[in-house]
Design a protein that fits this description.
Helices cover 29% and strands 18% of the residues. With 65 residues, the protein is α+β, with helices and mostly antiparallel strands. The chain has a domain of 37 residues.
Length: 65
């Protein structure tokens, strides 16, 4: 079983999302800050492959002006 320890920065943003978010899908315990190509980066600087297929990135990409 994999257990993650969330940083205080990530926990802060997740608390805000819980309070003010739309709650239309189950959130993942990662706060994404930016995307570049096939990678996403969280607020703690960790890099992930973008397998989310989110509609916001599909429409305009990660670096739309």
């Amino acid at each position: 079983m994999l257990t993650a320890t969330l940083s205080s920065k990530t926990q802060h943003y997740l608390t805000l999302e819980e309070q003010f978010g739309a709650h239309n899908y189950h959130p993942i315990p990662v706060v994404l800050e930016r995307g570049e190509g096939v990678y996403l980066y969280d607020v703690d600087g960790n890099r992930y492959f973008d397998f989310l297929s989110g509609y916001s990135a599909v429409n305009q990409g990660h670096c739309h002006p």
